[in-house]
Amino acid sequence: MKSIFIAFDQAHYERIVDMLEHNNCRGFTAWQEVQGRGSLTGEPHYGSHAWPSIASAIITFVEDSRVDNILSLLHQLDVESPKLGLRAFVMNVEKTI
Amino acid sequence: MSLYGSAVKRPIMTTLCFVAVTILGLFSLSKLPIDLFPDIETNTIMVMTSYPGASAEDIEQNVTRPLENTLNSVEHLKHITSKSRENISVITLEFEFGYDIDVLTNDVRDKLDMVESSLPDDAENPIIFKFSTDMIPIMLLSVEASESMPGLYKILDDAVANPLARVDGVGSVSISGAPKREIHIYADPARLEAYNMTIEQISSIVGAENRNIPGGSFDIGSETYALRVQGEFKNAQEMENIVVGSFNGKNIYLKDVATVDDSLEERAQKTHNNEQQGAMIIIQKQSGANSVEISNKVMEMIPDLQKRLPADVKLDVIVDTSDNIRNTIDSLVETVMYALLFVVIVVFTFLGRWRATLIICITIPVSLIASFIYLAITGTSLNIISLSSLSISIGMVVDDAIVVLENVTTHIERGSDPKQAAIHGTNEVAISVIASTLTLIAVFFPLTLVTGMTGVLFQQLGWMVTIMMIISTTCALTLTPMMCSQLLKRGVKHGKFYNLFFTPINKALDALDRGYGKLLGVVVTHKISTIIVLTAIFIASIFLLRFVGTEFFPTSDNARLGVSLELPIGTRAEIAEEVTARLSKEWREKYPEIKKLNYTTGQASSDNTFASLQDNGSHIVSMNIALTDPGDRERGIVEIAESMRQDLKRYPEFKKAQVNVGGSRGSGMSGQSTIDYEIYGYDFAETDTIAQRLKRILEKIPGTADIIISRSDYQPEYQVDFDREKLAMYGLNLSTAATYLRNRINGNIASLYREDGEEYDIKVMYAPEHRTSIADIENILIYNSAGNSVRIKDVGRVVERSNPPTIERKDRERIITVSTVVNGVPMSEVVSASQAEIDKMDIPTGISIELSGSYEDQQESFSDLLMLGILIIILVYIVMAAQFESYVYPAIIMTSLPFAFTGIFLLLFISGHNLNVMSMIGAIMLIGIVVKNGIVLIDYIALNRERGMSIRTAVVDGGESRLRPIIMTALTTILGMVPMAVSTGQGAEMWQPMGVAVIGGLTFSTLLTLFYVPAMYCLFAAVGVKRTRKKLRKALAKKQQND
Question: Which of B415, B943, B947 sits opposite A81 (nearest CB)?
Answer without folding.
Answer: B415
